[in-house]
Amino acid sequence: MTHIKTHFNRRSFLKVSAVGGAGLMLQFSWLSGLAHSSSNAEAVEGLFNINAFIRMNEDGTVTIMSPNPEIGQNVKTSMPLIVAEELDVDWDQVQVEQAPLDTEKYTRQLAGGSQSIRQGWDSLRMAGATARYLMLASAAKLWSMSPDELVTDKGMVKHLPSGKSIAYQDLLQEAATIEVPEEVPLKDPKDFKLIGTFVKNVDGKGIVTGKPLFGLDYMEKGTAIAMIVHPPAFGMQLDGYNADKAKNMPGIKKIFTVNTALDKPQWSDVNAFNELLVVVGDSTWQVMKAKEVLEVRWKTLGTLEATTAHLDSFSSVFDKSEGELGRKDGDPDGVFASADKVVESGYTGAFLAHNTMEPMNFFADVSADKARLIGPIQTPEQLRQSAASLLNMPESKIFVDMTRMGGGFGRRLYGNFGLEAAAISKAYGGPIKLIYTREDDMTQGTYRPSYHIKYRAALDKKGNLTAFEVKGSGIPSSPLFPDRFPAGTVEHYKATHYGIDTNISTGAWRAPRSNFVAGAEQSFLDEVAEAAGKDPIDFRLQLFDRAIKNPVGEGNDYDPERYAGVLKLVRDKSNWGNKMPNVYRGVAAYYSHNSYVAQVFDLEKVDDANIRIKKVWCAVDCGIVVNKEGAINQVEGGIIDGIGHCMYSQLTFEKGATQQQNFDGYHLIRNNEAPLEIAVFFVDNGIAPTGLGEPSLPPVAGALANALYKATGTRYYRQPYMVVPQQPKFVG
Amino acid sequence: MPQYSLHINGAIHQVDVDADTPVLWVLRDHLQLVGTKYGCGIGQCGACTIHLNGNAIRSCSLPVSAVVNAEMKLTTIEGLSKDGTHPVQKAWLEIDVVQCGYCQAGQIMSAAALLERNPNPSEEDIRNAMTGNLCRCGTYTRINKAVAMAAKDL
């Protein structure tokens, strides 16, 4: 039997205490010795130790606090499910509550990097297993037996030979007196009853009945509505304003400016516009109307950037500097100079907005000696730190609470809207609710950067890959992962980063960097396989075979067997070699956020002018699947989101301003553009689970481009693919 | 400010608001019916979908002064059923459609209106009827399954 330590180091503790009546509270804290000073949102990986908080109630129910923010990735269901499994209770007995920010009880209350499940796995299992052990030991004491003679099942302790049984709730007082051992036994995964089954979203009922769960729904009595007016373009700043007309509009209370600039911004404080004009009034519509009649003057301080100029800078970026070397194996330059065949292609991707369906918003009630900040935020701890600095108030006086979020996708890692709400409440002198219009949201973002990557591959006479070179650039920085595939599979390899300065604010966006690199790399490999005269799956499997048997270089950031495993699974499930009339297929595989995903896209021509995505086949290796229902939903969602963004979405700039301001200009994928069918398959390998909020999105752009090539004969080098002229229309 | 009487979810509500106030903000700010969501304000995303006499409409683009006739009955997600038992709501739970959930009230209202006028929709009918409702999480295939399931359950 596997055992797990209940104390990992001197800084951890576990507290068991009786609570009102016959309840029992188990509180696990690992006061993480790891610093919280990560420099960017992606570095949050590795910081994590989930803490748990279980309350066993005298009515037999178990309350499991979900400490992590819920943005639609369904951790509020899947994390408590792991606790319930090891505790061995029925899922019906479990109630889940969202915990507020409390750094004394929990660490890393953050949603990002698809890390919640991966990093919570051991800790959540331990929490449940410890509680289960206490139940066993209590019954053993009561019955003068050894815990080894007893078993648990659905919230009961049983002694099978005698038929004796007792419910957990009747053991709670006894359990508070039991000493927790250094190690407790874990279930064998083959005995899992809940993990791996289909469990519905715990908030489903509230959502389908319109309950006030989201940030935008949160209101308190006497709260005024606040809206901001920010500069119309990046590179501009407020110069002055005339509010005479606006301030006399009905319901308008106050018009003023705030400044949210911090002395020492942290990674989550990305924000292009610190000085803002604010309108506060009685109702949202009144404030919206007052905004329209404000007379505002702006001054230009920086470059007013344009997409045409961005594309120009991409065309010369690799010639202007040496770049920054990310990795070099062997002698790529020498091999390219004498190669039999060289394939070379460049790929470009547009800026993207997050466009969470719920626009940014936050409630703030700031008085002289305390502040309450409540709303949708992926980084509540960072918001509190920055708010303390902005308000010049100790963190202990600031209360932050998280609502359910109408999408995150990385946008709510950057809490500028929370800081703005705090600054507005302080200046206004009362509770306010800050609401962004969709236009505010889309034109003041932390966008997915625009990227340009150039690949070069050398082939020998037999079509073997002998050298591979990649140059990656982005506005502002390169998206490359130099140690990822195909590094390790080819003797001569080089990856170089290039950056281009900008004043446009950018940040993490669902599957940061992977969201572009995967499509470019997997499209390019399709071209290389074709040039080598090989089937695209066989070509990749040969590369993985090399990395399995005799990997090149050090520090390769993937497991080639698991990578090859998802490709084989999708090949088999989709009957890859099977030619079907009017079906055009493309394949891609990508590893990101610790999970492996391979996809086959089946396109069909409706007629000469129209193409439809008939079916997407998807194989996933995320280790043990915690909640199959939620896992499949995440994978399907990532695929549809991925299709939409590589196919249709873009944010373009002119004179520093986005040319898209709302959903009439910004094309987010719609229902009739989604694939007719998505089939998801999981590798069953019993490995500890990894996350699924992001990994299914990146390969989409590659598999779709490769299928489109089969259907149209055109290679797609620029995202969104819709910008390619004279191509068929894509229909549902 | 003018006073209006609105028929919402089977009850009459009195509100004092400007004539051009969209029904969306009357529901959210004045009547605390916040199940109807703001997404774009220009009728493009469908998050604010409600029913006007059984037809799906975008409440963000509908001024309150246009729906004060006593014959104009509004239904919001809160009034679709008493306890989440409308066939569309039941199907949504059965298929476990939601991810973040923000757009789903609007999706459900569009689906319910579709089934009201077309109880046996084809797959294409469903996709076309649901195309005015955006979902960034990408739950479209589940939405379509749930609508088809609800149609069977009518």
Unreliable parts of chain B: none
Query: What count of domains describes the coordinates of chain A?
Result: 3
Backbone structural class of chain A: alpha+beta
What is the global morphology of chain B?
globular
**Radius of gyration of chain B from CA coordinates:** 15 Å
* CATH homologous group name of the largest domain in chain A: Aldehyde oxidase/xanthine dehydrogenase, molybdopterin binding domain
Percent strand of chain A equals 25-35%
Query: What letter string, H or E per element, gives the SSE order of chain B?
Result: EEHEEEHHHH
The most extensive contact between chains is:
A-B, 68 and 61 residues
Strand percentage of chain B lies at 5-15%
User: Helix proportion of residues of chain B, in percent?
Assistant: 25-40%
- Overall radius of gyration of chain A: 27 Å
Instruction: Give the mean pLDDT of chain A.
Output: 91
The CATH H-level superfamily of the largest domain in chain B is Beta-grasp domain
Q: Name the poorly predicted regions of chain A.
A: 30-50
Mean pLDDT rating of chain B? 97
- The strand line-up of the biggest sheet of chain A is 13-14-11-21-18-19-20
CATH architecture of the largest domain in chain B: Roll
How is the biggest beta sheet of chain B arranged? 5 strands, mixed
Total domains of chain B, how many? Answer: 2
The number of helical segments of chain A is 16
